[in-house]
Amino acid sequence: MHAKVMTMPTHIDDDQDFSSRKANSPGRGAAILIYALYLGSVMAVVTAPLGVAIAHFKRGRSAEWVDTHFRFQIRTFWLGVVAGGIGLLLWNLLGYLDAAPGIAWGLGYLFFTACLIWMVARCGVGIHRLMANRPIDNPRSLAFGGASVSFHD
User: Nearest CA to 114 among 95, 92, 86?
Assistant: First the structure.
């Protein structure tokens, strides 16, 4: 009579191994720092240029999925700069056209508030995907990187 010997698998569960490997991916910590610097720029504008400098430096030197976050962060910064420049030009144009100060201030306030919400939302989506060890699906997106955004889980 032969006894059947059960052997335990010698490898770690593939899903668990993949998840832990992604969490330790090169550049992931820098991507977290950059999102924090962008959010910090709400209070101190100087942190955003520091963040984009780090993103430019780290891009191409990290795991491929983390690189999507760096491209998303770089694009967030430069789109914000362009939007801010356009906003300032339009605000000045309203002044040259002798628009009522209330109109110029109101439109400027609404425009820059919308830009702030856009930037914070992009950072929120990026942080959420980074913490889940997921790439940004479409880093070239003008909105939220291809992620669907909803107010419920």
Answer: 86
**Alpha carbons 120 and 126: distance in angstroms, whole number:** 10
Give the DSSP H/E element, type plus range, for residue 122: helix 101-131
Tokens in use for 57? 């430096």
Residues 69 and 57: their CA atoms lie apart, in Å, by 13
pTM: 0.79
- In sequence order, what are the residues at sequence separation of 6 or more whose Cβ sits closer than 8 angstroms to the Cβ of residue 121? 144, 149
Return the residue matching tokens 């992620």.
147
Give which of 117, 34, 43 is closest to 83, Cα–Cα: 117
Task: For the chain, give the mean pLDDT.
Answer: 84
Residue 22 has pLDDT above 80, yes or no: no
Cα 104 to chain centroid distance, Å, stands at 30
Going by the DSSP 8-state scheme, the letter that residue 42 receives in this structure is T
Closest CA to 142 of 114, 122, 128, 120: 122
